[in-house]
Amino acid sequence: MKKIFVAIILSFFLSSAAWAISLPDAKAQKLVGETPSGYLEAVSGSPSADVKALVDDINSKRRDEYKKIADKNKTKIAAVEALAGSKAIEKTPAGQYVKKGGNWVVK
Predict the structure, then answer these.
(1) C or N: which end of the chain has fewer Cβ atoms within 10 Å?
(2) 106: pLDDT strictly greater than 80
(3) Mean of pLDDT over the chain
(4) Burial, 102: exposed, middle or buried (Cβ in 10 Å; 0-12, 13-18, 19+)?
(5) Predicted local confidence at residue 20, as pLDDT
(6) What letter does residue 47 receive in the DSSP assignment?
(7) From CA 41, how far away is CA 53, in angstroms rounded?
(8) Structural contact between residues 12 and 81, judged by C-beta atoms closer than 8 angstroms
(9) Do the Cβ atoms of 70 and 80 come closer than 8 Å?
(10) 49-81 pLDDT tens trace
(11) What is the rounded distance in angstroms from the CA atom of residue 88 to the CA atom of residue 83?
(12) Which residues are CB-neighbours of 56 under 8 A, at least 6 positions away?
């Protein structure tokens, strides 16, 4: 079980150096936030191409990791996503966006 949590936490920090903005920078600039679904979303309805590419890349890597965890533990991916989302929101530092009740709030 501890390995599952470690894998989930590590997946939050996966980012690609190919994008012009890093995940920590995008979060600090309030461009993206964590959601209860376990995935990132752009806070703005019309993100820049760099932010959209970053979110798509991170979410793709997270989805792959969640699937591996779900398969290994013989559970549904939705359960892994929900747990990951809860943990991500819990670990989000003050001053960054999280989605609660369908709305963006600054933690």
Answers:
(1) N
(2) yes
(3) 89
(4) exposed
(5) 76
(6) -
(7) 11
(8) no
(9) yes
(10) 999 999 999 999 999 999 999 999 999 999 999
(11) 9
(12) none
Per-residue tokens: 103: 């709305």
Residue extents of the structural domains in the chain: 2-102
Cα separation of the two ends of the chain: 28
Tell me which DSSP letter residue 93 carries.
Answer: P
Helices (H), the chain: 2-12, 23-28, 49-72, 77-91
Give the pLDDT score at 9: 61
Q: Helices 77-91 and 49-72, interaxial angle, to 10°?
A: 120
Structure tokens that stand for 25 in this block? 């920078």
To 5 degrees, how large is the angle CA 53–CA 56–CA 61? 125
Q: Which two tokens stand for residue 29?
A: 């600039």
